[in-house]
Amino acid sequence: MYDDNTTPTRAVLWAHGAVLGNRRGWGFAHIWPACDDVESYTHLANLAIVPECFASLTDKDGPLTDYLKWHAWTVCGWKPSHVAPPQMPADYNADLWRYLPKFDRPKSFIAKRVSELDNERVRILRPVMETCGML
Questions:
Q1: Which of 54, 75, 98, 120 has the most C-beta neighbours closer than 10 Å?
Q2: Is 42 left (phi over 0), alpha (psi -120 to 50) or beta?
């Protein structure tokens, strides 16, 4: 596993049918600091797209992490298995969230992208995807 944001960034973009186009001004953040946890690393409920200017506010124990954790827990019903359920921040507002457009065939799109690419990361992912029946 790579401890960088390349694979998680691709996961969130590909899950929404997006190719790695211009992402200037945006960052991709893990919600829970569980980068060494295989089940959390690319889980979509553990990833957020945030303006770059907020990146330090969402990192590790930044002031926005509790909001992201609560949102992921209430909307997706997910948290890393080794952590307790998060508590709702006192001033949390569920109306402030914005989502990428719904994409109906993410697995087909991801399989297509993996078949088109031949970099080291994709060569590592192919056997896993074959085992899961995605290729």
A1: 54
A2: alpha
pLDDT at 2 over 60: no
What SS3 string covers 26-92? EEEEECCCCCCCHHHHCCHHHEEEEEHHHHHHHCCCCCCHHHHHHHHHHHHCCCCCCCCCCCCCCCC
Nearest to 9 by CA among 130, 126, 100: 100
CB of 45 within 8 A of CB of 72?
yes
Residue 19's pLDDT is 65
pTM, to two decimals = 0.65
44 vs 34: which has the higher pLDDT: 44
Structure tokens at 2: 């790579």
